[in-house]
UniProtKB/TrEMBL annotation:
Signal sequence, renumbered to the chain: 1-23
Keyword annotations: Signal
Glycoside hydrolase 123-like N-terminal domain ranges (all copies): 44-893
Name of this protein: Glycoside hydrolase 123-like N-terminal domain-containing protein
Species of the source: Parabacteroides faecis
InterPro entries, sorted: GH123-like_N
Length: 895
C-alpha cells in the first residue's frame, strides 16, 4: 500500500502540482478583481483560497479506500475550482469531510454540495443514493424527495434522463443535491447519502439537517441566494395535451386531419397527399376559402442503379390522438429496404416527420429524396437557402449542404398558404444564432447531408407548379445500416392576423438605463405597454430579472405602472445569461449542459475581438463562450458591470426559464415578455404560452431579431430562425440592420410578418409610409415616433377596420405603377388609403377606385395632418398621384 501511495504521489506531483500553482495565481488575481467590483463575500474568499502544494501532498498520502476524496459543502460555499482544492478542505479531519450539517426552514427546497476530488486516476460513472432522513419523532424526509442535479433530471419534453459523470484525474467535480423539506417538518433530521464510482468502494456521507422556524413561501424561491430555484431545472410546467389560444382541438376523419388553419389528407405511405389552408387574402379564417398548397402527393423516393425501389405494404396506422396532436406510422418494404414513416401533427400546424430507412442488404444507392410538388399559387414567394425573403426566382434553384452557413430551412408560399421545411436527423442540435453561429454550427445530417452530397433543388414546371426536391445523393449502405430522414413542416399562416390588437396595444420601449421617466413618458405619449430591457436600474442583469437586490425595485415599478393602467413586459429570453446569477457555479458543475461549451479565454467574436472580459478569463477560464457585456454609467448600479455567457439551446435551462416566468407572473404581476434572438424552441414557447394564459389573462409576447444575412451569423434569414415560435408570438419586430430601401416583396415576407399571421413594427427601416402599407409603425421611442399615427388610428377607428393590402384582389384602390402600391383600411363608411413610393425618385401613378369593393361612394378625399409627416389638405379626386422619392400619402375617404 505504501509503495502504491508513493507512486501516486510522484505522478500527481509531476502532472498536477504545476497546474495547482498556476490555478492559485489565477484565483488570487480573480479574487482581487472581484473585490474591486464589490462582489466578494466571506464564502467566496474561503472557496477561492487554494491549498498549498505541501498540504495537497499530505492529503493525497491518505489514499482513501474509494480512491477519491469527498468533501461536503453547504449552499453558501459554492465549489468553484475544478483544478484545485481550497484550503478549508485540507484543514478538515478525515471524519469531518464526509459529514454534513445544514439548517433550513419548513417547506424549503434545500440544496447543498459534495465535492469529489480525484487525485490518483480518473473516477468514472459516479452515482448518488439516498436514505430516508428521520427526526427524533420518526418523521421523515423520504429518500424519493432527494435528487442530484448532475446525474440527470427532466428534459424540456417532460421526460426523465440520466447523465454519466466522470471526474478526470487531478480534477474536482461538484455534485449539487436538493430535496423538498415538508412544510410540517421540525427538528433534526438524520440520514445518509452514498457516493459511489464504478469499480470502487462507496463513500458514505452522514447528514444532519436542522429544520425550524415558520414555513417559507414558494419553497424559498423568493430569495435567490437560497439556490432553491435549482429545482426549476426539472420542471414540467406548461406541458399539456391541450391547445393554446387561439387554436382548437385537432380533428381526424379517416385519413384527413383538420386544424384551425386548414386540412391535410395523408396517403397510405404516411405523407401528405393534399394540403390546403382556409384563410382569405387578409389572413382571416374563412370557411369559403380553400387554398391548395400541394399540387400532388408528397413522395419519399429511394433510387438505386436499377431505378426507383418499389416499396410495398404501405398501411397507415394511427398510433395516438388527443386534442393537441395526431400521431401515425406507416411501414413499407422492398427487396433492399424497410422504410418506416412516423408523423405527429400539432394543433398549431407544425408537423414532425421521422422517416427511418433500414438497409436489408448491401446496396449502392443512387439517391434518397423527398419530392414536394407546390401549386403555382403557393410558390409565389420564398425564403431560405441563402435567398432573402421575397419573390421566388423563376429559374432553377440549386442548393447544397454546407455547415459554414446556417441554412437548413426553406419556406415557399403565398400570403395565405405556404409550407416551411426544416431538415434534420436524429442527432440534430439547435445551432447558435447571431454572431455566435461559428461557435455552434449545424450538425450536418448524416442522411440529408451525406458528406455534403445532399441538397435541395427547386424547379418550376411549365404549368406553373414548382417541384421541391430534397435529395441526399449517392452512397453505399451495408446490411443493417439505418438512416434518419427527419424534417419539420410548418403550415403558414400560423394564425389569423390581429389588426385590433396591433391598433390597441402600444409599446413604450426606452433605451435609457434609468427608469424614472418610463411611466410619465408612456402616459404622455398614449402608450399602454412598457417594455423593460435589461441593463436598467430596475432590471440590471441580462435574462435574470429576479436578481434579489433588484426585485423590490422592479415590483414597485410594475405596481406603479398597473395603477396607471400600463402593462409591463420584460426582456426575457434564453441565449445569454449573466454571471451575476446565484446559481452560476451550480450550473457550471453541469458541464456544458446549460453553459455552452466553447474556447473560453481563447474565444474571439465580433464583440470580443481581443478575447473575453478578464472576469471570465480569471474565473471560468475554459469551456465557455463570452456574450453580452456592458458597464453601468448611471443609476443605482453605476460602476458595476454585466457580463454574460452563451447558454446551450434546448437544455434544462428552458425549464428554469418557464418557472421563472411563472414566478414573475404570480409575484411581480408581469404582463408579458420581449424575446430577442432566442435559443428557445417550439415546445418551450408553447409551454410559455400556457404559463402566460393560465389565469385567463392574455399576456403578449413580442419577438425581435438582428439581421443574420452575413458571415458571422451564417447567412440565415432572420425571421426564418424563429418561424416555429410564431404560433405563440403576438407581434414581431424584425429588422435590426434592415434598411427602408429593401424591396416590396422583402418587406412583405421577411419584415411584415403578414404571410405568417402576425403584425409587426418597423425597426431600422424608418419610412412610415412604407411601413403603413403593411400596418407597421415605429416603436416608441426606440425606432421613431408613432404617436401622430396613433392619433390618426384612433380618430379613424383602426381597431374596427379591415385591412386590404395591395396583395389582396379585394383591395379597392389600385395603381398602374408597381413602385407605388396601395393598401386600404376600411371601417364602415370611411377608409384610409396608404400610398408609398418605393424608389428614391418622384413617381406618378394612375389610380383606380372600385367603389363596390370599398363599400361606399366617397364624397371627400382628405389628407389628414400627421405631425412631421404630412400636411393637412384636400384632393379633388383620386385619379392620379405624384409622390416624391421615398415619400407617400395617406388619404382619408369618407362617404
Amino acid at each position: 500500500m505504501l509503495r502504491k501511495q508513493i507512486k501516486y504521489l510522484m505522478v500527481y506531483s509531476l502532472l498536477t502540482l504545476p497546474c495547482v500553482m498556476q490555478a492559485q495565481d489565477d484565483v488570487t488575481n480573480a479574487f482581487d478583481d472581484l473585490k474591486r467590483q464589490g462582489t466578494v463575500n466571506e464564502q467566496d474568499s474561503e472557496m477561492r483560497r487554494v491549498a498549498s502544494s505541501d498540504a495537497v501532498k499530505k492529503l493525497i498520502q491518505e489514499n482513501p479506500e474509494a480512491g477519491y476524496f469527498c468533501f461536503t459543502e453547504d449552499r453558501e460555499h459554492d465549489i468553484r475550482m475544478t483544478d484545485a482544492i481550497p484550503v478549508r478542505w485540507v484543514e478538515r479531519s478525515a471524519d469531518s469531510r464526509t459529514k454534513f450539517q445544514g439548517d433550513c426552514l419548513p417547506g424549503e427546497f434545500y440544496t447543498w454540495q459534495v465535492g469529489v476530488f480525484a487525485p490518483y486516476e480518473t473516477v468514472s460513472d459516479l452515482s448518488v443514493t439516498f436514505s430516508d432522513w428521520k427526526n427524533e419523532k420518526g418523521n421523515k424526509i423520504p429518500a424519493a424527495a432527494f435528487r442530484c442535479f448532475n446525474l440527470g433530471g427532466t428534459d424540456t419534453n417532460g421526460k426523465s434522463f440520466k447523465k454519466t459523470v466522470n471526474v478526470p484525474k487531478g480534477n474536482v467535480q461538484a455534485l449539487w443535491i436538493g430535496s423538498d423539506v415538508p412544510v410540517t417538518a421540525d427538528g433534526v433530521y438524520k440520514g445518509k447519502v452514498t457516493i459511489k464510482a464504478a469499480d470502487a468502494k462507496p463513500v458514505e456521507i452522514t447528514c444532519e439537517l436542522t429544520v425550524q422556524g415558520s414555513p417559507i413561501a414558494n419553497h424559498g424561491d423568493n430569495e435567490g441566494w437560497r439556490k432553491t430555484r435549482l429545482r426549476w431545472l426539472d420542471s414540467s410546467i406548461g406541458n399539456a395535451d391541450e391547445p393554446t389560444a387561439p387554436y382548437i382541438p385537432v380533428q381526424l376523419q379517416k385519413q384527413t386531419i383538420s386544424w384551425l388553419g386548414g386540412t391535410m389528407e395523408l396517403s397510405k405511405e404516411g405523407l401528405p397527399q393534399s394540403l390546403s389552408t382556409r384563410y382569405d387574402r387578409s389572413n382571416q379564417l374563412n370557411d369559403q376559402s380553400n387554398n391548395p398548397v400541394l399540387a400532388g402527393e408528397m413522395r419519399f423516393v429511394i433510387e438505386t442503379e436499377n431505378g426507383e425501389e418499389v416499396l410495398k405494404g404501405g398501411s397507415l396506422r394511427i398510433t395516438g390522438q388527443n386534442k393537441a396532436s395526431v400521431n401515425w406510422t406507416a411501414t413499407r418494404k422492398s427487396r433492399h429496404f424497410e422504410v418506416q414513416c412516423s408523423g405527429t401533427f400539432g394543433f398549431d400546424g407544425l408537423v414532425d416527420y421521422r422517416i427511418q430507412v433500414k438497409s436489408l442488404g448491401d446496396v449502392k444507392v443512387k439517391d434518397i429524396r423527398l419530392e414536394v410538388p407546390y401549386t403555382a399559387y403557393a410558390a409565389k414567394y420564398m425564403m431560405g437557402l441563402g435567398h432573402k425573403g421575397g419573390l421566388r426566382p423563376d429559374s432553377l434553384i440549386s442548393w447544397q449542404w454546407n455547415v459554414e452557413k446556417h441554412q437548413d430551412k426553406i419556406w415557399m408560399g403565398n400570403i395565405n398558404a405556404g409550407l416551411n421545411f426544416c431538415f434534420k436527423d436524429e442527432n440534430y442540435v439547435r445551432p447558435l444564432v447571431n454572431i455566435y453561429y461559428g461557435l455552434g454550427k449545424l450538425n450536418l445530417p448524416a442522411s440529408w447531408g451525406n458528406a455534403n452530397k445532399g441538397g435541395i433543388d427547386i424547379q418550376p414546371d411549365k404549368d406553373g407548379t414548382v417541384l421541391m426536391t430534397a435529395y441526399s445523393g449517392e452512397r453505399s449502405m451495408q446490411k443493417g445500416d439505418v438512416l434518419h430522414y427527419n424534417f419539420n413542416m410548418l403550415v403558414t399562416p400560423v394564425k389569423p392576423l390581429n389588426l385590433p390588437e396591433l391598433a390597441e396595444k402600444r409599446f413604450y420601449h426606452s433605451n435609457s438605463d434609468v427608469s424614472a421617466d418610463y411611466i410619465p413618458a408612456a402616459l404622455k405619449a398614449g402608450a399602454n405597454m412598457i417594455n423593460v430591457h435589461h441593463k436598467k436600474d430596475i432590471y440590471p442583469f441580462i435574462n435574470y430579472p429576479y436578481y434579489d437586490e433588484a426585485v423590490p425595485d422592479l415590483k414597485r415599478f410594475i405596481s406603479d405602472a398597473h395603477s396607471k393602467d400600463l402593462d409591463v413586459r420584460l426582456y426575457y429570453t434564453t441565449r445569454e445569461l449573466t454571471v451575476k446569477i446565484p446559481e452560476l457555479w451550480a450550473l457550471r458543475s453541469l458541464g456544458s449542459e446549460v453553459i455552452h461549451d466553447g474556447p473560453g479565454k481563447d474565444a474571439r467574436t465580433l464583440i470580443h475581438r481581443n478575447g473575453p472580459h478578464e472576469w471570465l478569463n480569471k474565473n471560468l477560464t475554459t469551456h465557455f463562450i463570452p456574450a453580452w457585456y456592458n458597464a453601468f454609467k448611471e443609476g443605482k448600479y453605476a460602476g458595476d458591470m454585466d457580463i454574460s455567457v452563451i447558454t446551450t439551446p434546448d437544455s434544462r435551462w428552458n425549464n428554469y426559464y418557464l418557472e421563472g416566468l411563472d414566478w414573475m407572473i404570480k409575484n411581480l404581476g408581469l404582463d408579458g415578455v420581449y424575446i430577442d434572438d432566442s435559443a428557445l424552441d417550439h415546445q418551450t414557447l408553447q409551454r410559455a404560452r400556457r404559463v402566460m394564459d393560465a389565469d385567463g389573462k392574455r399576456r403578449l409576447i413580442d419577438i425581435h431579431s438582428w439581421n443574420h444575412m452575413n458571415q458571422w451569423a451564417g447567412y440565415a434569414n432572420s425571421l426564418h430562425l424563429y418561424l416555429e415560435l410564431l404560433p405563440y408570438v403576438d407581434r414581431t419586430w424584425i429588422g435590426e440592420g434592415f434598411p427602408a430601401n429593401n424591396t416590396l416583396d422583402f418587406w412583405l415576407v421577411e419584415m411584415s410578418g403578414i404571410p405568417f399571421g402576425l403584425m409587426s413594427e418597423t425597426l431600422d427601416a424608418r419610412n412610415v409610409f412604407r411601413g403603413m402599407v403593411y400596418g407597421m409603425l415605429p416603436r416608441l421611442p426606440w425606432s421613431g415616433n408613432p404617436v401622430p399615427f396613433w392619433h390618426i388610428w384612433d380618430d379613424f377607428g383602426m381597431k374596427n377596420a379591415v385591412m386590404r393590402g395591395y396583395w389582396d384582389e379585394r383591395c379597392p384602390v389600385k395603381t398602374d405603377n408597381a413602385n407605388i402600391p396601395a393598401t386600404v383600411y376600411i371601417n364602415g363608411d370611411k377608409a384610409l388609403v396608404v400610398l408609398a413610393n418605393w424608389t428614391d425618385l418622384p413617381q406618378t401613378a394612375k389610380i383606380t377606385l372600385d367603389e363596390q369593393l370599398l363599400g361606399f361612394k366617397p364624397s371627400s378625399y382628405l389628407l389628414p395632418e400627421i405631425r412631421n409627416t404630412q400636411w393637412e389638405g384636400k384632393l379633388s379626386s383620386l385619379n392620379q398621384c405624384e409622390i416624391m422619392g421615398r415619400g407617400g400619402m395617406i388619404i382619408l375617404l369618407e362617404k
